[in-house]
Design brief:
This protein is of the alpha/beta class. Helices cover about 15% and strands about 25% of the residues.
Amino acid sequence: MKCLQPWTRRSKQECAADDKDNFMTQPSRQLKLTTAELAGRIGAELIGDGAGVICGINTIQDAGPDEVCFLSSSKFAKRLEETKAAAVMTGAKVDGFDRPQLVVDNVDRALIAIMQMFAPPLKSFEGIHPTAVVEPDAQVDATAAVGPNAYIGHSVTIGAGTVIGPGCSVGENSTIGAGCRLDSNVVVYHNCQIGNGCVIHANTTIGSTGFGYSFIDGRHQLIPHNGGVILEDGVEIGANSCVDRAKFGNTVVGAGTKIDNLVQVAHNVQIGKCCLLAGQTGIAGSTEIGNGVIFAGAAGAVDNIKIGDGAIMGKQTAATRDVPPGQKLLGAIPQEMTHEMRCMSVYQRLPEMSRELKKLTKKVNALEAAKDDTI
């Protein structure tokens, strides 16, 4: 086994002597930047005084006098009249704002950068915790970390800088690339491959047996699932989600795809690159999903269909047939999204339309009665 020297238990006095406590490093002090320094880091044009000190970022409503706020749209500019923020980060100069402005080309990109700078400093794992079990033939990079009560199985490979959180289990012959993070109680079954830079949040399971049964001799018998799972580079999966292993070959999640909490990806599903699957999405077995596809909350797809590149499934939409590239569907019985939105606007007016219809019916009946009397 190739690994960092195991953690050793140390007294609080020993830890305090060099600003460390048991098993974890001490967080760094909170970052402080002048407005000019912050502007330089995000490539912003600074309008106004650059000497103020910035210690964080917050919303327009909640930002304090040592924080920068952000203006995502000009329609919210009026709210700046009441902000206490030391400065505003914006996509275009705001007339009449009397504090420094950091003007950027892309507000979302700059927002992400600033939030990463001022993220709360957390203690990080180092080495292999004494309560972790690492099989002798596993290979754990010297810069990786394995947390308390974790299990690393036979012939597992873990790459540089990867952190395996408390209570995780990595099964036999699985590989995890560099720079990954598995949060508490993640389970990776045997014969799974996780690429570089992947993040898997707490209690998620990778490689569980798929839901495949055959009714034989009066009972449902499980069909063996002898394949694996491949998560390509940069995949992120939320908490309490499941990606099932394949019967044959591999279930694949493409590079850069982001999966939310409480999502089910069934056996042999093929998901393309840079897709988004929101919470409670369910993808049935052997479905093929192209690149850049979006599933909104509680959406899904039946088994053995193909969904083309760039398609969008609106909330609670179930794809029941092949979906062409770029098509947008919405509704429990999927319809073209623009058509379904028109229908939804009519649904909302049905009570009013019903009352009007009754009035019109009475008028028509009265006119018909008058016509009959004339005759």
